[in-house]
Amino acid sequence: MSDALFPRPRAVVAPGAVHVPGWLSPERQRELVAACREWARGPVPIRHTVLPGGGVMSVQTVCIGWHWQPYRYTRTADDVNGRPVAPFPDWLAALGRAAVADAYGDPAAGGRYSPDTALINFYDGDARMGMHQDKDERSGAPVVSLSIGDSCLFRFGNTEDRGRPYTDVELASGDLFVFGGASRFAFHGVPKVLPGTGDPTTTGLAGGRLNLTLRETGLKEGRVSNADRRAADR
Ligand code: SIN
Ligand code: MN
C-alpha cells in the first residue's frame, strides 16, 4: 500500500528491472483477488506443482492462457486434470501494457506488450520459491509481477547463477515489479513471506500472499514443449 510509514520510491533494481511500490489501487487489488479466487476453482484447480524429480512446490499455482508445468507450456493442464485452462482476458493484457508503460516510462513499450499467460501463485506463511529463471517462454518480452496480500522478501539476482550479486526487495500489497531487457533472464526467488503484513480489509484476502506474473509465451496454438522445440531444432 502507498500509505506506508516511510515512502517507498520507485527503484531501478537492475537494468530493465523496475520496482513500482503501490501501483495497484486498493480497488484493483480486490478485483484481482476476486478474479484469482474464481480461477483457483477451475476449470483447472489451483494446486502444488510437482517437479520432475518428485519434489512438490510449496506455493500453490493456477495458470490462465497457457498452463505451465515444469518446464513447458501447454493449453491443457495435463499434470492436473487435463482440462484447457481459463482464457487470458483482455482486461489483464491491458493491465500488463499499463504496467510496462509505467515501469519504463515508455508508452510505446507498453503498447508492444502482449502477454498471453499468467501464473498465479499463492503463498501461505511457509511457502517460498527458490532462485530460478523464467525461461520457458520463446519471447524476450518483460515479465510483469503483481503482488497482493502479505509482503515478501523478493530476491532479484543476476543472469549467470543463483548466487550473488543479488538485491533483496520487499514486495508489498499493490507493488509492481517488471523485469525485461538485460534483466529478463535474471535469477529470482522468494526466500520468505512476512505473515500478517497484509491488510485483509483492503484486499479481501484473509491471509497469505498472491502473486501474478504476466508473460508473453511467444507460442502459437497447440501443444509446444521445450522437447518439441529441441526436436524441431535438430
Ligand atoms: C515467480 O517467480 O514466478 C513468482 C515471483 C513472486 O512470487 O514474486
Ligand atoms: Mn519466476
From TrEMBL:
SUPFAM superfamilies: Clavaminate synthase-like. Pfam families: 2OG-FeII_Oxy_2. Its cofactor is Fe(2+). The keyword Metal-binding applies. InterPro entries: Alkb, AlkB-like, AlkB-like_sf, Oxoglu/Fe-dep_dioxygenase_dom. It comes from the Bacteria. GO terms for molecular function: dioxygenase activity. Signal peptide: none annotated. Residues 114-218 form the Fe2OG dioxygenase domain. Transmembrane segments: none annotated. Keywords: Dioxygenase, Iron, Metal-binding, Oxidoreductase. The keyword Iron applies. This is Alpha-ketoglutarate-dependent dioxygenase AlkB.
